Amino acid sequence: MIELAQVVKTYSAGLATPYTAVNGVNLDIPGGQLTVLKGPSGSGKTTLLSLIGCMSRPTSGRIHLHGLPPGLLPVGADADPLEITSLPERFLTTIRRRTFGFIFQQFNLVRGISVLENVMLPTYPTGEDREAVEARAVTRLEALGMARHLKAPVDRLSGGEAQRVAIARALINDPPVIIADEPTAHLDSRLSAEFMELMGQFKGAGRTLLIASHDPIVHDSPLADLVIVMRDGQVVSAP
Amino acid sequence: MRPSLQRHRSVLDFALSSLLRRKGRNLALTAVYTLVVFVLASLVFFVQALKHEARELLEHAPDMVVQRMVAGRHDPMPASQVEAIREIRGVEEAEARIWGYYYDPVYGGNLTVMASQDPTLAPGSAWIGRGVARNMRVAEGDMVPLRGYDGLPILFTIQKVLAEDSELVAADLVVLAPTDVRALFNLPEGLATDLAVRAGNPRELATIASKIVEKFPDARPILKAEMLRTYEAAFDWRGGLMVVVLASAILSFIIFAWDKATGLSAEERKEIGILKSIGWESGDVLLLKFWEGAVVSLAAFLGGVLLAYGHVFFFSATLFEHALKGWSVLFPRFRLIPALDAYQITVLFFLTVLPYTAATLVPCWRAAMADPDSAMRS
Fold first, then answer.
1. Which of B6, B277, B278 lies at the smallest CB-CB distance from A130?
2. pTM of this prediction?
3. Cβ–Cβ contact B347 with A under 8 A
4. How does the average pLDDT of chain A come out, rounded?
5. Do A122 and B279 touch (CB under 8 A)?
6. Alpha-carbon distance B35 to B301, whole Å?
7. B76 touches chain A (CB under 8 A)
8. How many CB atoms lie within 10 A of CB B97?
């Protein structure tokens, strides 16, 4: 479970034009379920995802991760729940790498390199054996129907294919939590439905899914266990 | 493979593929960088090799040369002084030398004419350096006219063209019998150009020199070490002059490299954000950028040094010969013996590789320190 307490994120704090993107959010996100953050553009969904995913630190407030398996904890961090907002960057990176898999709205693949290399990229700093990583990446890509594109440069892929590569990359370290930011924004209805089907499979495998979207295919999906509505950086509706 | 090595291997692989993705920019940068290293390394190698060569040649030179000064200028001296100098304790050998310079108006070259006591060199014959032979287009057995002091030509038969390995110092040399040199320059019997002195113990040279000056106050003893210093200063001066001439080109490269290395494009900035968001630490990003900078600068350094080695030691520094070998009409042609100084190569390495690698790290350090989400949004 992920627990947020009075989380505030203000950009350009202390400058002439500060902007508070997330303002006093309290939330409990259950493990093993699919949670959707719903709201218009600028409501703070993406910022909240980046805070939860250890990509940035809140200006104030606390975020706790409950029930992390000991193997996923950084060396020297053994508390449960683990309070992540005050951890040094090295610990945050380890948690981000081991715990979260990210699927970005723009897919954020590295252009000019192959599909396979993009998927393997998160493992490079770990010093893991290249052959083992490659075998795992091929398995992930095959499962997503991308076997024939392994050596293709990502620049030549369609939107749906690029998203599958992004999904394979998010899964390469086998993270227990998948975070997706507007994953269907660049997909047509058929591909969006296929994406939700995949999410269903991940949920069935016991992963925690956290998706920010204002696409009805996502937030009205029967797979969604929890829909949290956000507006102006605040949670306006949560069970 | 150990994880830490595997990490370096993976990051290096990715650094190489990153460089290839920006092929045009990186190739241009490496080419210009290589050119600068090539120019600098050529100068270093050439000056170093010349100094080495000069040291080797001066090994066989006399320990001291004694000249006579009249009104502050070099003047012929009485050959009889040889006997008096030979008597000085510590002098092993003293010999009167006859030599001078001859300007050839036809070929526009200055020749060094020297007398040799060698019995195989008959009067009317000459040994000439390769530069002279090339310039006058003559070979063994040919005859060459030299214009005497009175304007009348004197004919000499070329008995020998001097060996190639002595060309650095003997390119402009014409060796004649002593009587011929005297006739050419109108040098009276009993006068010599200077005296060559050898000492049994080189440590006694300074004392011997002071005793010579005591005996002959108008004498000017020149030690071998002083000659070597003069050669080294001349080569250093020429090398330094080239650096000054090339300074603007080197400066342009520094500005170009600084601009390319320190400026991060929006794409690179975004890429750093992506890498951080998928689990790379700031240190990993810096390692990647370090490898990128190191690959470019090391490739340029090695390429530049190897090209310079070939240029200097296989092609006799063709590009710089006019500036480095001298301004004479008689350019010596010679192949230098490779003489590399580890210290100078290390200095060159630190002056070229380190600044560039460091320059690439600074902007990346700033981008890598930012939160991944801010790097992604920028």
1. B6
2. 0.70
3. no
4. 88
5. yes
6. 9
7. no
8. 19
- Taking an 8 Å cut-off on Cβ atoms, the answer to whether A117 and B14 are in contact is yes
Report the complex ipTM. 0.85
With beta carbons less than 8 A apart as the criterion, state whether A8 and A61 touch.
Answer: yes
Chain B residues within an 8 Å CB radius of A179: none
Confidence of residue A79 (pLDDT cuts 50, 70, 90): low
Q: Look at the alpha carbons of B182, B187, B193, B198 in this order and tell me if their dihedral is positive or negative.
A: positive
Rg (CA), chain B: 30
Q: Which tokens go with B307?
A: 């090209």
Say how far apart CA B298 and CA A199 lie, in whole Å. 47
Does B328 score more than 60 pLDDT?
no
* Pairwise CA distance, residues B272 & B251, whole Å: 30
What domains sit in chain A, N to C, each tagged with a CATH number?
A: 2-237 (3.40.50.300)
Q: Which residue pairs, CB below 8 angstroms and at least 24 apart, start in B103-111?
A: B104/B135, B104/B136, B104/B146, B105/B147, B107/B135, B107/B136, B107/B329, B108/B329, B109/B135, B109/B172, B109/B328, B109/B329, B109/B330, B110/B172, B110/B328, B110/B329, B110/B330, B111/B172, B111/B173, B111/B174, B111/B330
CA distances from B216 to B22, B78, B221 (A): 74, 11, 10
Q: Assign A179 to helix, strand or coil.
A: strand
Asked if B226 and B71 count as a contact pair (C-beta separation under 8 A), the reply is: no
Between A and B, how many residue pairs show a Cβ–Cβ distance under 8 A?
Answer: 91
Residue B378 has pLDDT above 50, yes or no: no
DSSP one-letter code for B193: S
Q: Which CATH number fits domain B64-223: 3.40.50.150, 3.90.550.10, 3.20.20.150, 2.40.40.20?
A: 2.40.40.20
Strand partners for B174? B113, B128
Question: CA-CA distance, B283 to B369, in Å (whole number)?
Answer: 9
For residue B115 the two structure tokens come to: 């007398």
Rg of chain A, C-alpha, whole Å? 18
